[in-house]
Amino acid sequence: MTKLLNIQSSMFQAGGQTSQLAAKYIESWKTNNPDGELIQRDLVAEPVPHLSLERFQAFTTPAEQRTADQQAIVDFSDKLIEEITSADVLVLGVPMYNFTIPSTLHTYFDHIARAGVTFRYTANGPEGLLKNKKAIVFVARGGYHGDDHAQSAFLRQFLGFVGITNVELVYTEGLATGEEAKEKAVVAANKRIAELA
User: Fold this and answer.
1) Residue list, annotated binding site
2) Which of 169, 2, 53, 33 is nearest to 101 (CA)?
3) Which residues form the Flavodoxin-like fold domain (predicted)?
């Protein structure tokens, strides 16, 4: 059975452009995978705590030495990792906020990147352990930045770091430049969704 994990980070939640595009893709995915399982994670409705020294130390403390509070922190992270580990397809809604990804998504990534769990260091460099997955990332931007941008590079770099190298970025750009540009961008994104589905 195929499993899809949908991760949303728009402050507008279901009303956000990336959320709406992801929903359209998921609708097609459900049609093609009637027995598939959908997991939804809304990082605005249920924000992940920022990484703190306390949380980092909980991750790096051996299991047998953790306090009850540290174990609770690790259990929370483990739940997030179990969701992403069990998924075959990841669908991320990622608006651009101040030239980068939303802080809610970054804190989620901070809890996903765990040495020895989702990646490991080897003599040949880091190796991602979340393999054999596809990620479709819907990116919405007010201006025009294209694929050669730090936000795009970071998304590919992080996902690749944990082993997810099959990454498709679908852009909707120029949303703040006028209704005509917005409509054109949304039409192009929907066309790409149809091709991916």
Assistant:
1) 10, 96-99
2) 169
3) 3-195
Annotated binding site for FMN: 10, 96-99
Torsion of CA 117, 119, 120, 121, to 10 degrees: -150
- pLDDT tens, position by position, 96-105: 999 999 999 9
Residue located via tokens 């040949």? 124
H-run or E-run covering 192: helix 179-196
The beta-strand segments (E) located in 63-155 are 89-95, 119-122, 125-128, 134-140
Q: What is the pLDDT of residues 20-77, one digit of tens each?
A: 999 999 999 999 999 999 999 999 999 999 999 999 999 999 999 999 999 999 999 9
Q: What is the CATH architecture assignment of 3-196?
A: 3-Layer(aba) Sandwich (3.40)
Structure tokens at 6: 């949908």
The tokens 């728009």 sit on which residue? 10
Provide the 3-class DSSP secondary structure of residue 48: coil
